[in-house]
Amino acid sequence: MTKEELFHRLSTVLQDTFEIDPELIRPEARLREDLDIDSIDAVDLIVQFRPYVGKRLQPDVFKSVRTLQDVVDALHGLMQESVEA
Predict the structure, then answer these.
(1) Taking the CA atoms of the chain, what radius of gyration do you get in angstroms?
(2) Where are the domains of the chain?
(3) Rounded distance, CA 31 to CA 25, Å?
């Protein structure tokens, strides 16, 4: 899955699960400040991507995630690790 596909999937999840306005969903959007995604919501969000990554998601990977692009980059990196393993 490409980063663009991941972002599109992330956008769909944010709209369907968290009822976030599509106009707010852009790569530079900050999770807490712009989208009102708290740490519990962030965990719920990441868990929805576990099937795509194919392995258990470690919270440490997401400690530095602040924007939607950070989420996409972290997930994409995990997916690449799964492919290479």
Answers:
(1) 12
(2) 3-84
(3) 10
Homologous superfamily of 3-84: ACP-like (1.10.1200.10)
Q: Quick one: angle between helices 68-84 and 39-47, nearest 10?
A: 40
- The size of the chain, in residues, is 85
pTM to 2 decimals? 0.87
Residue 3: pLDDT band by 50, 70, 90 thresholds? very high
Closest CA to 11 of 23, 1, 25: 25
SS3 67: strand
Question: Residue 13: CB partners within 8 Å, gap ≥ 6?
Answer: 45, 48
Neighbours of 46 (CB within 10 A): 19
The 10s digit of each residue's pLDDT in 36-67 is 998 888 888 888 888 877 777 777 777 788 99
Quote the CA–CA distance of 73 and 7 in Å, as a whole number: 9
